[in-house]
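Incident log, structure service

09:12 report received: a user says their structure output differs between two submissions of the same chain.
09:20 pulled the input from the user's history:
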Amino acid sequence: MKHVGVLALQGDVREHATTLRKLGVEVHEVRRPTDLNGIEGLVIPGGESTTISHLLVSSGLRDELKSAFADGLPVFGTCAGLIVLSASILDGRTDQWSFGVLDVTVKRNGYGRQTASFEAPVDVDGIGPVPGVFIRAPRITEVGAVETLASYDHGDGSHPVLIRQVQAWGCSFHPELTADVRVHELFVNSL
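09:34 re-ran on a clean worker, output below:
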């Protein structure tokens, strides 16, 4: 059985945990550095990226995670989690930081504010169409050394929405808010 942590400071913690358990994964809620012991991967959920970044500092997890990612801990960030993992944030607050483990530039709320949220099918390499739930979703505007697993055209050109770079994964949409477990399964199977 695989052991995967879900960062449990803010956001879609329960939804990610439920999806991972459907895949037979032992889920560990991560709130402090000692909660990282024994996990084989980590999910950083959607939520509010500046809040998550501040809570990572106050919980003592920021430096621990930075070291763990440098040592190869696999990580999967959805929505705000993608922002926290990105190399550059176009419209972040001056006090907002990111881990820089995904060589991408993101724009917060890149598909629009809350009222512009939408659902659309996303075609993922190797598994086909999955439901894409885009809620104040970040838009990946520039990519470096990442592999694009899925893109989406919102009427203004195609942009990556699911990416991977070595052991780090990022997703603009919320796969945890649907009954389809295949995006999480891709991550779990990579562990």
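09:41 both user submissions now match this output. Likely a transient worker issue. Closing.
09:42 reviewer note: The helical segments are 13-22, 49-58, 61-70, 80-85, 182-189. The domain at 3-189 is CATH 3.40.50.880 (Rossmann fold).
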